[in-house]
Specification:
four-stranded antiparallel sheet; two-stranded antiparallel ribbon; globular
């Protein structure tokens, strides 16, 4: 039987609107939330990285490479 768990703001997810996501080799789920935040879910809790941590005003996508590096595609206004 498939077990489904729903997470929301009360669990630390900053928004329901997720525009991109990947899973790294360690099992972490990386998500882009409303194009403004990068979110990591380790299976237990959410950690949000906002513009101050990423130094990006907008995040459009994420990817990982074979070395398990996480690549963020984004930019700032006027650039």
């Amino acid at each position: 039987m498939l077990e489904v768990t729903e997470w929301g703001r009360k669990d630390g997810l900053p928004s329901w609107l997720l525009t991109d996501w990947i899973e790294d080799r360690l099992g972490n789920i990386w998500m882009v939330s409303q194009g403004e935040s990068l979110v990591r879910f380790d299976g237990h809790q959410f950690k949000t990285y906002g513009p101050a941590e990423s130094r990006l005003e907008r995040i459009w996508g994420i990817a990982s490479d074979r070395d398990n590096n996480i690549w963020i595609v984004g930019g700032n206004a006027g650039e």
